[in-house]
Amino acid sequence: MDKKSLKIETNILTEEKILHWEKILEKLKESMGLQIYTSWLKNIKLLKEYNHFVVLGVQTRFFRDWITSRYADKILDEIKKHKLSINRIEFKIQEDKSENKAIYSNNTESNVSDIKDSILNYNRLNQNLNFDNFVLGESNKLAYMSAKKICTHPSRYNPLFIYGGVGLGKTHLINSIGLELSQKNNVMFISAERFMYQFIKSIKKNEMVKFKDFFRKANVFIIDDIQFIRGKEGLQEEFFHTFNSLFDKSSQIIISSDRAPNKLDRVQERIKSRLSGGLVVDIGTPDYELKYKILKMKIKEFESTFKEYPNLNETVIDFIAKDQNSNIRELIGVFNRIVAFSKMGKKQLSVDDCKIILKDVYKNSKVITIEKIQNVTSNFYSLNLQEMLSQRRSRPLARPRQIAMFLAKKLTTRSLPEIGRKFANRDHTTVIHAVKTIDKLCINNEEIRKNVEDIKSIILSD
Ligand code: ADP
Ligand code: MG
Q1: Does the beta carbon of 138 lie inside 6 Å of ligand 1?
Q2: By C-alpha distance, which of 327, 330, 303, 319 is closest to 354?
Q3: Measured in angstroms, how far is the CA atom of residue 148 from the centroid of ligand 2?
Q4: How far is CA 449 from the centre of its chain?
């Protein structure tokens, strides 16, 4: 790519002002109502405008999270009407304490008390966890179908109780329900831990009445990680009453847990029986197909977010999906790690590269020693190890020696001086030279490149 075309590429990021922000705010006021507008939107500033995204300024982290979870889609839609190429909003927090205060007290829902603010703060749905990007597989099909059913027939199955191990998609699924139902309902989404935190705070501040009112006015109540209430008597008591009053007025209740209701030890029997009184479904560990599909989706997501292909071939995707990681959070972690590395190098990653990248992710991975690298390399070239390490400079000895140094740098965490010492007390500058030389040769010399790959495979495979 020459300089000119590079320029054109980066042009995607140049500012080009088309948007008339005041007009957009005016439209949002019309479509979303004065109350939402004055409470949340009025003070948003347009800070920067690029071809594909805009940067909006908000007063606090709290505002950002609240706006992101509730209104970001609508704001984006409105912006798109004026400039179609925009596909993303970024928020920048512009701290200004005095202004914040004014805005809080300006809230049209009047005297928003401390407790309400802080509850709102934790009562947020994540726009990124929705039904559209929830990938279906054998292990989560039933839970997914139940979740969908709740959305079409609220309060028919009450409560919906979803359980399963960590990282399997419980939060994602119940958040999706929340998003879908929030169009027409007053949805509360809170983790059991936050529920307790609010509960204790309210007791301390003598605001239990407010606490009760606040939670009980929800018509969809979603509580994540209910196992947290185990062994906490006071909290169970309060939860039981909240549950009952919501249930009595037919509010839909959705609960997630790391275990089945009857396995919740140190939880009152009456609560357990309440929890299992509706629809109980589990999410199991993902199989190969599901993991594969999730990886494919993550690649698509990556492409559309970064406008860049993460350069993973089928063998690599297959390798990640076959990997022993049994939960989806880990799978995504592994994927991100590999993509991060693939972006740094220019060539396509091989499975061996991935093994190296994931070296410390593998619990039972064997330690690769410099001795091992030296042995494998000298064997590969049918050399005597002492010869390979000797001070002789003839190429048939020097190249394998350099390759071994190169691999020692790439495959171990040893420092350059340490590596030098292991190569018959050579200086670290010799190691640097070797690494540079082999790096270059791997690009220009097909035979060397192949040899290096083969040696690497042997080292990694046994
Ligand atoms: P849990 O609450 O069960 O511990 P999460 O819902 O937090 O798990 O899921 C962990 C990660 O895996 C999240 O990033 C989530 O988006 C993702 N994830 C889980 N299941 C799926 C799925 N079926 N499709 C897409 N992403 C998923
Ligand atoms: Mg969770």
Answers
A1: no
A2: 319
A3: 19
A4: 36
Question: Which token pair is 249?
Answer: 């007025």
How far, CA to CA in Å, does 459 sit from each of 15, 327, 354, 367, 447? 50, 29, 14, 10, 18
- pTM value is 0.59
- What number does the ligand 1 atom closest to the CA of 283 have? 3
What residue type is 411 in one-letter code?
Answer: L
Closest C-alpha among 291, 294, 310 to residue 302 = 310
User: Which atom of ligand 1 is least distant from the CA of 328?
Assistant: 12
Segment 19-44 shows an average pLDDT of: 88
pLDDT tens column, 123-168? 578 899 999 999 999 999 999 999 999 999 998 899 999 999 989 9
CA dihedral sign, ordered 450, 453, 459, 462? negative
Could you tell me the distance, in angstroms and rounded to a whole number, from the CA of residue 255 to the centre of ligand 2?
11
| Closest Cα to atom 4 of ligand 1 | 167
Q: Is the CB of 329 under 6 A from ligand 1?
A: yes
Q: Residues 244-269: pLDDT tens digits?
A: 999 999 999 999 999 999 999 999 99
The token pair that represents 55 in the structure block: 């940067």
